[in-house]
Amino acid sequence: MFDLLTQSTISSSLFALSLLAVLFGLVLGYAVVKFKVDGDPIVDQIDNLLPQTQCGQCGFPGCKPYAESIANGDAINKCPPGGQTTVNQLAELLGVEAPELDESHGEEKDKRVIAYIREDECIGCTKCIQACPVDAILGAAKQMHTVIVDECTGCDLCVEPCPVDCIDLLEIDEDINTWSWKQPDLIATDKRGVIS
């Protein structure tokens, strides 16, 4: 009788523990899914301040991973494309003092830079397309490629892999056509996507 009662109690306890483990797993799974769907508001706010060049100069493969790292306490001054203005905005958002831009990650550029492919020299290898983090290069294998100016962030990641060195980075002078370059629909381009 004692053995039967002990076995019954043990079985009930194991069942209760199993049920508790399943419930805990469901709650944890829901929390993970909710976090991935909703995201972290501070990470999203940081990411919105970053320039979205996805250039990797900060040491991360894109702006979102850098934003996540900043939210976890990483330095806010590793983004040359964003420059000191972005550092100041991040400092204000996080309520910290703004450090100087860390130039070991690159120098801030005064003007917007875009990639330009000299199309008559392009061999259509697609290496620049594969390197572009924002899909700003249009072309196909063994066909000439061109840069979609409105999408180019000037990260220069397409320059290095080009085997025929036919990609130039061009600075865009600020004038009536380019002063509002962050609103791409206001940039005057010709049919090849070249700034006019």
From TrEMBL:
Region spans: Hydrophobic: 1-32
Residues that bind [4Fe-4S] cluster 1: 55, 58, 63, 79
Textual note on the cofactor: Binds 3 [4Fe-4S] clusters.
Coiled-coil portions: none
Localisation per UniProt entry: Cell inner membrane
Molecular function in Gene Ontology: 4 iron, 4 sulfur cluster binding; electron transfer activity; metal ion binding
Residues of the 4Fe-4S ferredoxin-type domain: 113-142, 143-172
4Fe-4S listed as a keyword: yes
Keyword set, alphabetical order: 4Fe-4S, Cell inner membrane, Cell membrane, Electron transport, Iron, Iron-sulfur, Membrane, Metal-binding, Repeat, Translocase, Transport
Enzymatic class: translocase
Binding site for [4Fe-4S] cluster 2: 122, 125, 128, 162
GO biological process, alphabetically ordered: electron transport chain
The UniProt record lists the keyword Metal-binding: yes
Record's function text: Part of a membrane-bound complex that couples electron transfer with translocation of ions across the membrane.
Family: Belongs to the 4Fe4S bacterial-type ferredoxin family. RnfB subfamily.
Protein name as annotated: Ion-translocating oxidoreductase complex subunit B
Species, as recorded: Umboniibacter marinipuniceus
Gene name of the encoded protein: rnfB
